[in-house]
Amino acid sequence: MTSRISVSARIACGDHGLPLARGLLLLALLTLSATVCHARGRPPENDGSRQAAFQWVDSQWGRVLLMKDYNTRIVIFGVAVLGGASGLVGSFTLLRKRALMGDALSHASLPGIAIAFIAANWFGGDEKSLLWLLVGASTSGLLGVAVILVIRNQTRLKEDAALGIVLSVFFGAGVALLGVIQQMDTGHAAGLEGFIYGKTASMRAADAQLIAVTSLVVIVGCLILFKELKLLCFDEGFAGAQGFPVVALDVGLMSMVVLVTIVGLQAVGLVLMIALLVIPAAAARFWTETMWRMMLWAALLGTCGSIVGGLVSALFPGLPSGAMIVLVCSIFFFISMMLGTRRGVIIRFLRRLRLNRRIDRQHLLRAMYEQIEKHSGGQARRDLALRTNRRTPVTVDRLLSMRSWSRRRLCRAIDQAVEDELLRMHEGDCKLTQAGFTEAARLTRQHRLWEMYLIAYADVATANVDRDADKIEHVLAPEVIDQLEDLLDEQGMMIPVPISPHGIADEDPTGAAVNQSDTSRGAST
Predict the structure, then answer these.
(1) Whole-angstrom Cα distance, residue 338 to residue 234?
(2) Which of 115, 269, 128, 123 is nearest to 177 (CA)?
(3) Residue 287 in 3-state DSSP?
(4) How far apart are CA 351 and CA 80, in angstroms?
(5) Could you tell me how far CA 208 lies from the centroid of its own chain?
(6) For 469-488, how does the pLDDT look when each residue is reduced to its tens digit (9 = 90+)?
(7) 393 lies in which domain range?
(8) Rounded to whole angstroms, how far apart are CA atoms 364 and 443?
(9) Measured between alpha carbons, how far is 525 from 522 in angstroms, rounded to an integer?
(10) How many helices (H) does the chain have, and how many strands (E)?
(11) Does 390 lie in the same domain as 335?
């Protein structure tokens, strides 16, 4: 019975990644189509502004989806590779419990951008050169990483405090420097706002190539160091004991985060960059519990979210690309949270429901066995008594008094047991079938083995052992039962179905139970 249930659960909850990925993408496209159709039905605003929100042009749908425009192809390519790389490296930071590291690094890059602008102006260069600005952002981001590591390793402060300090201090310094730039006679900060809020629509081919090269470096680095980074994420102490360069690996991981963050400033800006690092990886956790599958899911969700968000922004020029990418990724996260096959809300609810019903059925069978045992004078474990008394009917009212359940709950457990051919109803009373009696004896034996172990080795009081055993008996693995049998057999305590070490309660042991007299216990001795 147990093996059949476990196999069914594995089949029902399997990791069918490819069909689910197709369904996820199809659902996103249907949602996009509904949004577009709704917007298309609205009368156009006659205000003469080309930037009006939800501006619709009949021919724009085909042009955008087929990517006929050169700029659309550049933008979609750039954000797609950025989303994949962000999801990949974000998986490691999430498992390493550094989900906010990207946020701290993106904010830490702002003073570097401002300093690069000021330095280029002083030396007569192009203040808004992307190369100079990215170099400044990278330098400032790496400095932020170094400060975080120093605070974490050299002080008693924890990492979350270090992240908060670096984020606030560096971002405050960046805002102050932007104020200085505003006061300069030869420069202004208007062109730097794109690094704060993103400027995907103005992405050039050179920018997309830079994003692609950087993303490729990050992806290759993650694949080459997959084994080492995986060990670092799950057990840093063990990695150090095995001789792995933990500090170097940590710095390497943070460097890849810096690279993705810096090139992502062009697409979504430093305010929203954290979303591409966290949301795809967090959504992937709902679909799988395997590391490499999680990385694939995160890369897929990051890529799809970036593509769909970029297309929505291209269809409606009034919607910024960075914000739409984040919103689409958030939709994917919500879908994953609800429908994920491993940790989704719905599947966890169904698993809990199945577990509770299985526990209720086991309690029902054990309660009936104990009633038969009492009618047998404590000798139900013997073959003759089993053959004689296994068909003894038990009334529903008696079961209600033993378990202190509601009638609806008891009827549901009885219906399930009847459906599984473990019980049959006769004139309103319950009778065990042969298969039901065998299962009830197995469950009772397992319960009492655990009780005897707790009494003998865990020093649990006899009056409390029933409640304590009931908390764990339903999840005992077969190998644990075998170990209990061997242990009790060595002590000469092993019998087919042990007599209960405590009096059998007339009511639920969690309530005000009134134990029977110790007649059955005396009979057993």
Answers:
(1) 26
(2) 115
(3) coil
(4) 36
(5) 32
(6) 666 666 667 777 777 777 66
(7) 350-491
(8) 10
(9) 5
(10) 23, 3
(11) no
Residue type, 260: V
CA pair distance 344, 285, nearest whole angstrom: 9
Place of tokens 């203040």: 127
Those residues of the chain that have pLDDT short of 50 are 1-18, 20, 27, 29-32, 34-58, 379-381, 383-384, 507-525
How far is residue 321's CA from residue 207's CA, in Å, rounded to a whole number?
A: 16
Beta-carbon contacts of 430 under 8 Å, excluding residues fewer than 6 positions away, are 368, 393, 394, 395, 396, 399, 414, 423, 424
Tokens read off for 367? 């309660």
371 domain residue, yes or no: yes
Q: How many domains does the chain have?
A: 2
| Residue among 28, 35, 93, 100 at smallest CA distance from 339 | 28
Q: Are residues 188 and 275 in the same domain?
A: yes
- Does residue 322 lie in a domain region? yes
Whether pTM > 0.70 for this model: the answer is: yes
Task: Identify the residue whose tokens are 């591409």.
Answer: 276
Is residue 13 in a domain? no
Give the DSSP H/E element, type plus range, for residue 36. helix 17-40
Which residue type does 194 have?
G
Q: Identify the DSSP state of 430.
A: E
Other CB atoms within 10 A of residue 199 CB: 20
Residues 309 and 229 in one domain: yes
In a domain, 361, yes or no: yes
Query: Do residues 78 and 321 lie in contact, with contact meaning Cβ atoms separated by under 8 Å?
Result: no
Strand partners of residue 423: 432
- Tally Cβ neighbours within 10 Å of residue 470: 19
What pLDDT was estimated at residue 217?
A: 92
Residues 443, 329 within the same domain: no
SS3 sequence of 333-361 = HHHHHHHCCCCCHHHHHHHHHHHHHHHHH
* 518, 462 contact by CB (below 8 A): no
Buried b vs exposed e over 344-374: b needs ≥16 C-beta within 10 Å?
A: beebeeeeeeeeeebebbbbbbbbbbbbbbb
Cβ 341 vs Cβ 349: under 8 Å:
no
